[in-house]
Design a protein that fits this description.
- This is 2-iminobutanoate/2-iminopropanoate deaminase.
- One of its GO terms (cellular component) is cytosol.
- GO terms for molecular function: deaminase activity.
- InterPro entries: RidA, RidA_CS, RutC-like_sf, YjgF/YER057c/UK114.
- By secondary structure, the protein is an alpha+beta fold.
- The protein has one domain: RutC-like (60s Ribosomal Protein L30, Chain: A), CATH 3.30.1330.40.
- The protein contains two helices and six strands, in the order E-E-E-H-E-H-E-E.
- A hairpin with a 2-residue loop joins strand 2 and strand 3.
- Helix 1 packs parallel to helix 2.
- It is globular, with a radius of gyration of 14 Å.
């Protein structure tokens, strides 16, 4: 049975989607962009934006009784793969071994013209 997951500690969904959905012991987050919980945008570089994305993801996972250590898959969308090294350095601050599986994809455009969006799949312990 699908259960929506939501928290005021991350930006509210602005469309017909949930911040995350729990299905059994799996949690699927929606993609998070660098919005503060109040909806204002972090307009800095990819590192600054990625830190806010991870703050949002941590809040959503916490609402589902998970942490980043429970993540098994990450999908990273970037506006410019030329910034991969900078993004990867931030990403490495949030995960430890065994690292989640990951896909990183350069896209033509992201919502609000941000530089990074990340979605996760986690297992509830």
């Amino acid at each position: 049975m699908k259960q929506p997951v939501s928290t005021p500690d991350a930006p509210a969904a602005i469309g017909p989607y949930s911040q995350a959905v729990r299905f059994g012991n799996l949690v699927f987050t929606s993609g998070q962009i660098p919005l503060r919980p109040d909806g204002t945008l972090i307009e800095g570089n990819v590192e600054e934006q990625a830190h806010q994305v991870f703050a949002n993801l941590k809040a959503v996972l916490a609402a589902a009784d998970c942490t980043l250590s429970d993540v098994v898959k990450a999908t990273v969308f970037v506006a410019d793969l030329g910034q991969f090294a900078e993004l990867n350095a931030v990403y490495a601050q949030y995960f430890s071994e065994p690292y989640p599986a990951r896909s990183t994809v350069e896209v033509a455009r992201l919502p609000r013209d941000v530089l990074v969006e990340i979605e996760l799949v986690a297992v509830v312990p």
